[in-house]
Amino acid sequence: MFTSINPATGETVGTYEELDQDGIEQALVRASAAFRAWRNSAVEQRIALLNAIADQWEANKQHLAEMAVREMGKPIGGAIAEVEKCILGFRHYAEHGPCYLEPTTVATPGGGHADARWLPMGPVLAVMPWNFPYWQVVRFMAPTIMAGNVGLLKHASSVQGCAALIQQLANAAGAPDGVFQNLPIKSDHVSGIIADKRVVAVTLTGSEGAGAKVAQAAGRALKKVVLELGGSDPLIVMPSADLDAAAKTAVTGRIQNAGQSCICSKRMIVHADVYDAFMERFTAGMKAVRVGDPMDKANAMGPLSSVQQRDTVLEQVARAQSEGATLLFGGEKIEREGAWMTPGVLTDIDPESDVAKEEIFGPVAAVYKVKDIDEAIALANDVPYGLGSSVWTQDDSEIERFARDIESGMTAVNSLLASTPAAPFGGVKLSGHGRELGPWGMHEFMNLKAVMFAKP
User: Which of 7, 117, 235, 264 would bridge 103 by S-S if both were Cys, CB 3.0 to 4.6 A apart?
Assistant: First the structure.
């Protein structure tokens, strides 16, 4: 049995039955049968299904958003924006997916040619997290449907209401039985499903530890795996930057989703020439963040996703202080029922300390002062992660240095880093491997087959 707890109040949102072993077997049977039919479905049928699902999400936008607020605490404005992004994701693959499936023809010696064709592979298991309970799923679900594969979702235990809604709306849109299935299961069933010969691949968004376990299980079964793991993204501010915009973006990076986003900036690396001016703006913005009821659109930040997650962040703040860091303000527990804390700012952090190497998955910023671009890049890279980055400068040569030398899968220039359906998403180092979104994400779980033709 799963129980969802509202992190704003501590109250029970709902309970959900766990799928037993027989239920898992039935789901795998359905997935296998569905793939045999769906792999040969017309592209027009796939387009129609994706658009129908998008229509269902549009019609149920408020209901979907409120479920996310109740189960993981994000403010209602952010929850609505997440649902809207999912609708765009479905429609993106409905519109552009057919082009992503087009074969490529190349000449071969002797006057022949080869077609490089993208073919579906089978049922794909997705292990998804709670922080963006819809968008993380849609990043996998939409390209899976367009590719001619079928999907199996193992969602986080705390957002089973969101998971059930995703399944319900797929059914309401007319998805054939077995093309997409939500599996309300716990983590101890994942390795067995990965090992099952009917499942061809697995994708996971989550922690480094969860990624290692899934990769190990996939490796034993010699199956393809895509991992989108943690991040400790730098936001680098150089002397030519628009400081007002940079500071505003830095605040958003730390309080959006209560700081529980893998690609939002967590470490602010600021050139000494503009450090004081940036800090004046940044600290004022962090202090002005309105924290409160996530159902109230006036509030920019709600609770963290759980008391456990809140306490993890508080422990990191305390450990950082014990290692010599200065807590300028905030980073404290709010004494009320639920998973509440205040936004905070840490400075004077030893880059070699334990906390400096970790991801702080909550509304606390780490700020560093550097003397030049070389030190900024070295510090940006001096963590085990390499997911995203944000750089602020008007100097084209600096932009090229950052793009070339920052060890990350993504770099945003003078903007907040955000995923978009058309661009590749993913990281390097301990942030994982493989890519989601665009044609790259869809092709991760497809068979690139060479069909060879001799000269007529």
Answer: 117
